[in-house]
From TrEMBL:
Protein name: NUDIX domain-containing protein
An annotated Gene Ontology molecular function: metal ion binding
Source domain of life: Bacteria
Organism: Kordiimonas lacus
Needed co-factor(s): Mg(2+); Mn(2+)
Nudix hydrolase domain span: 9-189
CDD domains referenced in this protein's UniProt entry, alphabetically: NUDIX_AcylCoAdiphos_Nudt19
UniProt keyword annotations, A-Z: Hydrolase, Magnesium, Manganese, Metal-binding
InterPro entries given in the database record: NUDIX_hydrolase-like_dom_sf, NUDIX_hydrolase_dom, NUDT19
Amino acid sequence: MDHSRKIAFPKPASSIMVIRDGQGGLEVLMIERAKTMKFAPGAFVFPGGKVDKADMQGWRWQGITTGRSAMRDFPYRVAALRELYEEAGILLTDKSPKRTLANATPFASMVRMAGVKLDILNMVPFAHWVTPEPMPRRFDTHFYLAPHNGDTALHDGNEAISFRWVNPRRILDDWENDRIPLMFPTRLNLMKLARATTVNEALRQARRARVIRTLPVVHMGQAGVKLTIDPATGFGVTAATPKELSVEASGIAKKA
């Protein structure tokens, strides 16, 4: 590994796990990434993305959120809801919009014109992952849990080719049987979520749990790449499998 190379600063990012009670138990909304994507092609992920400058400007959101901009993670919560709307067409607000949503306008302006407030208070911190240091593009990502409001998910047909409401245990079974690819953080977040069977139980468990910053460590040896995390993170797993590394380790190998 090249220790002389400068470590990239992780950019702030957010992701949201929208959950509902389905006929077969707890379900979470996941995106199927296009197989043409350079990173993690075909993988299933949660809606999310980078925190924009506008997300950090508290004055933009005065009067249009259910929480105050003084909250330490306020920009992350706003970013998660914005990304959810942009990627899936779901707008989590305190009530139904009074007007038709004007998609061409900035997100804050659209929310204000719709006469609603972004429901950031019902978002529960769930996990906190930081991209390993050898990666050229790094993100400091906060994951949130939030109950679904009934909006229909609509994919953009570009990066996301489909959305699925999936039972965490079933999608983990699909991963075990090589039917779908998952990244390491995604699998462990699903394992944590699978401890609950209903929305209320999942939210209650998340509120009680301590969120620990998780920074995987990359080990390069004769056997190849190994990715591990501190047992104190509480996921019950401490190392990525070869299947997960095949999805996300190519960037590590190129820069290590």
